[in-house]
Amino acid sequence: KEANRRDICSWSPYGSTLLYHQPRTCPVPIDDTAASRIGDWSPWSYLPYCVKPRNKPRSSPPYCVFSSDHYRAGHGLSVITTPQLAASIADTLDDGTVPPPIRNHPSSFLAHSSGPGPAFEIKDLPGRGKGAVATRKIRQWEVAMVAYPAVIAQMDLWEALGPDQIRAVLRQAIQQLPSEQQGVVLSLDHSTGGALVQDILNTNIFGIELDGVMHMGLYPESSRLNHNCRPNAFWRYSKDNLAMEVVAIRAIEVGEEITHSYAPLGLNYKDRRETLKEWGFTCKCPLCSSSRRVIQQSDQRRNRIREVRAVLAEREDLSGDQVDKLAGELLRLIGEEKLEVQLVVYYEVIARAYMGAFDFEKAKEYANMCENAWIQYGGLDHDNVEGMKQLWRDLDEML
Ligand SMILES: C[S@@+](CC[C@H](N)C(=O)[O-])C[C@H]1O[C@@H](n2cnc3c(N)ncnc32)[C@H](O)[C@@H]1O
Question: Could you tell me if 43 and 91 are in contact, meaning their C-beta atoms sit under 8 angstroms apart?
Fold first, then answer.
């Protein structure tokens, strides 16, 4: 009975978990041979271009280029992945699967442009190339930017394919984009070295998950966002419609650059530099451009944040008063370091520390703060809603 339901793909773990419920169809995965045999490769605009990944076992599925000309009002999309994963995202090609709040956002190119227009402009910035600068005040939790992918490629592409195969699939993926989108992609920044398209991908990708498999997502609009070690925004994307939202973590003033962090948050200066080497640049954000004394003070705070977190998470003999003191110190340091994006994680650590100290009122207070922050942070379909439910279950069991 289940298998007959149109909204469940038997081979797809996502099946019916759409937040924005659309009837889901379940296209059959096709490679180039199957598509030519049946003479149909819809919903894709071109016959898939497939290669056998040279560095994977012989039984592995091919990696194919699937392109759509009409994706997001004709901006186009090329996906380099297995036939099965391509079939699992076929429904997202339909503009109708983008929920109205995202589709109608002023920065979305699907919006009918009678509204106020985007809240940012792309400008040249000293030492950092181009970047997005706020043209009006952006409120905390406001979606500042909506973006859609132009290229998606399986994350292990560079290892799975031989160099000639990589060149061939990238050439095909770019050639099959509408010409305007080709120009947009080829004009993106690149700083990691090597062949142009591969370098553009390495410089600009966001890691996204399709059916549990990591992919590189190239989102040209949000590619212009620079890194900041004290970011004022973060990004999230929806598996259901592939749209990316850039959200303000605190109020952003007119003229302020909108930034996110490319590196895990909370690293000290040396570790951040090491991590950002992979991206091929030396960070020139305001913190990294400060005096040595300011950087040292920041490092001390960041080291202390890690220590306090470890004490709260690991010590089982803390009293309520001790948790009060440590939680207060942790939140003060996070505020001083402007690492608000991490609060979701720390609220849970504090809630669990209060549970350990049998102060259930405070535990509930922080569990509530954690849940509200996750909802603001990830939206209702965020994976961590499950983690939150576990926190509440653990708390209920103790009461
Ligand atoms: C994803 S792009 C960001 C937009 C880019 N600035 C542009 O002009 O399109 C990443 C590149 O921007 C530059 N960049 C980003 N954040 C930076 C920072 N904090 N300091 C210096 N350069 C930065 C680096 O060249 C990096 O490789």
Answer: no
Nearest Cα to Cα of residue 143 among 253, 236, 247, 234: 247
Q: How many helices (H) and strands (E) does the chain have?
A: 14, 13
Closest C-alpha residue for ligand 1 atom 13: 128
Angle at alpha carbon of residue 194, lines to 163 and 196, rounded to 5°: 95
Distance 190 CA to ligand 1 centre (A): 9
- Domain around 59: 2-259
Distance 227 CA to ligand 1 centre (A): 7
Tokens 């773990």 belong to 13
Q: Does any domain span residue 228? A: yes
Residues 131 and 230 in one domain: yes
Pocket test for ligand 1, best of 186, 188, 189 (most atoms within 8 A of CB): 189
Query: Within a domain: residue 267?
Result: no
Same domain, 18 and 120: yes
ipTM of the complex: 0.99
Per-residue pLDDT tens over the stretch 195-223: 999 999 999 999 999 888 999 999 999 99
Q: Supply the CATH number for residue 184's domain.
A: 2.170.270.10
pTM (predicted TM-score): 0.90
223 and 338 part of one domain: no
Tally of domains within the chain: 2
CB 193, CB 280: distance < 8 Å: yes
Structure token pair of residue 362: 């405070």
Q: Strand, coil or helix: what is 121? A: strand
Q: Pick from 259, 282, 317: which residue ends a domain?
A: 259
